[in-house]
């Protein structure tokens, strides 16, 4: 049984190791131009120890930023990041820090640390670090003076994303429309504008055609403790729709247009063919549940087998009494005296009484096969 459990555990470990893929948590970092940021790369699995780390960008400018091997100098492959990037720590320890200084608006992106583990049987295994980083570098304009609250929405190509719409001036005013702004580069762009007073698909400042026609956008409202809440659903999303979004409500007697992205921002990440994080997590969850159930079943079988083994040993340790001892009150052949415990039991139980036994109709079979009448016991 232990061999089966060990094989199962080995299979599970091999599956995790060979895939080398873990859906990392996303940490949002907001900085202004000219500041610095530290990206801590941490690997939970440290056996076997990794021998290298890659830092990659995976959104606006996908590609490799740098790589470092244990005992070797750092190699920065991104020309725009040279002389601005430094690394402290050792990949073999499963933890190191990457510092990017003199930040620019173009550094806004999603960053991921990939640790490299040696695999003698095949290609080296690449394992994601525990955390991915979304770095937002704000410029010197009005968009960068206030801190930004960011959320993450991940979906696949053809999927949808629900964005909450917020009021820029508090509650209690009548809602007359909605404005959706998007940021992919330095400045936000209004990609959707819908108002009772004016109706338009996008702002005139946008150089691109409308990204969200009416059939791909749905505005809904629902009651809440603070009043009505509004949500904007973007449908049929594609990888090029990945961006920072901010949905703002247009209120009565307030300015309708604003160049600010807003304080409540949602990062919508639309994956194409590699959109397998949620499916992979579901598969891992299902496989983990199956493994746990199988191990529990094996444990129950082992407990039942142990219990039955103890029961058999108890039965064997208490053999049945001979038949002639169980038939108390019968005198053995050969004129031997009946067992004393019968007399002691009778005298102790009926000490002041005289008990007369007479069972003329009871017989037992002698070893020779003859039937003999039962004789009275000795008093």
Description:
With 379 residues, the protein is an alpha+beta fold. Among the domains are: 16-140, Immunoglobulins (Immunoglobulin-like), CATH 2.60.40.10; 148-271, Sandwich (Immunoglobulin-like). Helix content is 19%, strand content 36%. The chain has helices spanning 2-19, 277-317, 323-326, 340-349; strands at 25-32, 37-42, 52-57, 63-69, 75-76, 85-90, 95-100, 109-117, 125-138, 149-156, 161-166, 175-183, 189-195, 199-200, 217-224, 227-234, 243-251, 264-271, 363-365, 371-373. The strands form four sheets. Strands 10, 11, 12, 13, 14, 15, 16, 17 and 18 form a nine-stranded mixed β-sheet that branches. Strands 1-9-8-3-4-5 form a six-stranded mixed β-sheet. The protein is flat and about 95 Å long. The model is unreliable at 8-22, 200-209, 323-327, 335-339 and 341-359 (pLDDT under 50).
Top keywords for this entry?
379 residues, alpha+beta, Immunoglobulin-like, nine-stranded mixed beta sheet, six-stranded mixed beta sheet, 4 helices, 20 strands
């Amino acid at each position: 049984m232990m061999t089966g459990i060990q094989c199962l555990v080995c299979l599970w470990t091999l599956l995790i190791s060979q895939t080398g893929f873990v859906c990392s948590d996303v940490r949002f970092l907001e900085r202004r131009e000219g500041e610095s940021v530290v990206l801590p790369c941490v690997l939970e699995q440290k056996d076997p120890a990794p021998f290298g780390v890659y830092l990659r960008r995976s959104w606006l400018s996908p590609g490799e930023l740098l790589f470092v091997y244990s005992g070797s100098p750092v190699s920065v492959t991104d020309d725009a990041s040279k002389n601005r990037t430094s690394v402290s720590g050792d990949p073999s320890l499963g933890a190191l820090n990457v510092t990017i200084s003199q930040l620019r608006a173009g550094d806004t992106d999603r960053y991921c640390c990939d640790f490299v583990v040696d695999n003698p049987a095949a290609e080296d295994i690449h394992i994601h670090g525990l955390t991915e980083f979304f770095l937002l570098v704000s410029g010197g304009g009005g968009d960068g003076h206030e801190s930004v609250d960011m959320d993450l929405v991940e979906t696949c190509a053809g999927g949808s994303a629900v964005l909450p719409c917020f009021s820029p001036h508090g509650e209690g005013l009548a809602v007359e429309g909605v404005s959706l702004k998007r940021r992919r580069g330095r400045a936000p762009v209004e990609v959707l504008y819908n108002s009772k007073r004016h109706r338009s698909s996008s702002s005139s400042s946008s150089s691109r055609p409308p990204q969200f026609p009416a059939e791909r956008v749905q505005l809904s409202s629902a009651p809440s403790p603070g009043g009505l809440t509004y949500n904007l659903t973007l449908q049929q999303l594609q990888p090029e729709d990945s961006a920072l979004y901010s949905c703002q409500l247009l209120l009565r007697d307030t300015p309708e247009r604003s160049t600010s992205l807003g304080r409540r921002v949602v990062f919508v990440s639309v994956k194409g063919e590699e959109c397998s994080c949620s499916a992979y997590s579901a598969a891992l969850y299902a496989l983990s549940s199956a493994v746990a159930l199988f191990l529990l079943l094996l444990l129950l079988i082992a407990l039942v087998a142990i219990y039955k083994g103890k029961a058999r040993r108890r039965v064997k340790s208490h053999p049945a009494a001979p038949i002639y001892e169980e038939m108390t009150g019968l005198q053995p052949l050969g004129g031997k005296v009946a067992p004393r415990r019968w007399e002691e039991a009778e005298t102790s139980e009926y000490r002041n009484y005289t008990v007369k036994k007479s069972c003329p109709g009871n017989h037992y079979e002698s070893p020779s096969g003859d039937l003999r009448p039962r004789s009275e016991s000795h008093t």
